[in-house]
Amino acid sequence: MASQSIRRKWCRLIKWRGTRIKLHPLFVLLMLLSIAAGQIAQIATLFGIVLLHELGHLAMALRFGWTVREIKLLPFGGVLEVEDAGGVPAREEALVAIAGPLQNVILAAFAWLATAFGWVDSRWADGFVQANAIIALFNLLPVMPLDGGKLMQTWMSLRIPYHRTLLWSMRISLLFSFAAVAASLYPLLRGGHVHLNLLMTGLFLAASNWTYRRNVPFVFLRFLVHRSRRADHRVDGGTLAQPIVISENRTPASVVKLLMRERYHLVYVMRQGKIRRVVPEGQMIDGFLASLTGGNADLRFFM
């Protein structure tokens, strides 16, 4: 019920190639205020930039064969919801993330060329280039669910276990979100005014990542489900295995937290310095998932 009420807050816009495109109420409010202030051209330009930014993500995702359910547009970017979340290769996720800011670079370059050839007014082009630069650079901040946050998470997942990646990307995102809120309020200490846009953005990102913090166990569980399905395909195609060495008293729940996103693992179970058995990662994951269905595991373990 909670997820349904959250979804209702997003305003349905259009549906394209099976993908729904929605507007966040903040974007709708910004549009209405801009129209009331007579800034129709400015808000139309912002909407076009944000939409093309997200279409850059969508085009790259479709190129990799992802199933994209919907795009949610915010004043500074958007969020893609995909069916394959948690099961896509890190390389694909990184390329999909960078495709949005790259779209802004292309748009800014086009505006610069159009000005050079005299096709558009230079003042409009300067504002257009600046808007693209702001959106691209803002989205590259290391905060989930921004593109920079996804790139950070992808980079971390290649170096530390995936569960630890989820936790640290969430913590770093919360840190930057609260830093944005603090920066928006800092002018008050010097007798100035609150930076309202930065405050609203910081609060939105902080709320999103606080919610994400509670959802980490379920994000990790989704990763394990996809991982279990992909394990057999990796073995069939041949792959190098990275060992995980544990004592025999370790539970499956503690072992799955050691899985690396882009590695295949064989789990070596040790007793008194000797190998007692070797367990493929798929068997270990299946054992953990079976313990969930039997009610013997607590997802709070993954917080």
From TrEMBL:
Membrane-spanning parts: 21-40, 94-115, 127-146, 166-188, 194-212
The organism's place on the tree of life at top rank: Bacteria
GO terms of molecular function: metal ion binding; metallopeptidase activity
GO CC terms of this entry: membrane
Occurrences of domain Peptidase M50 (ranges): 43-117
Chief location bin: membrane
Protein name as it appears in the record: M50 family metallopeptidase
